Amino acid sequence: MNDTKTPRTATGTWALPLLALAPLAAVGVLTDRTAGPWSAISWVLWALSALLVAVEWTVVLRRGPRRGAQWGPCILVHAVLAWQLTALLLHW
């Protein structure tokens, strides 16, 4: 048997959590988060981002952290996620 799998990259791109956080940041800048529907939308977007971060971490844990270039976006995602959580909690 000949295994001809191509090697996989170690981690994802961390782009999906960042894409989910972008509308959350826009909601925070353009609207009042304390308003009823915007507050609910903000929490949903934050939860979606947190779920996507968890998915990225499962990829890292399965395949191992092999590429150092992926740690920059990882740190960025976690910093923005913490910043948005702080903003949500302060306006709650």
Morphology call:
elongated
- Stretches where pLDDT is under 50 for at least 5 consecutive residues are 6-11
Average pLDDT metric: 81
Number of helices: 3
Domain unit count: 1
What's the structural blueprint in terms of helices and strands?
Blueprint: H1 15-30, H2 36-63, H3 71-90
Please characterize this protein's 3D structure:
- By secondary structure, the chain is mainly α.
- It has one domain.
- The protein is 70% helix and 0% strand.
- It contains 3 helices and no strands.
- Helix 1 packs antiparallel against helix 2 (36-63), helix 1 runs parallel beside helix 3 (71-90) and helix 2 runs antiparallel to helix 3 (71-90).
- It is elongated.
- 15% of the residues are buried.
- Residues 6-11 have low confidence and may be disordered.
In short:
By secondary structure, this protein is an all-alpha fold. The protein is 70% helix and 0% strand. It has one domain (15-90).
Task: List descriptors.
0% strand, 3 helices, 92 residues, mainly alpha
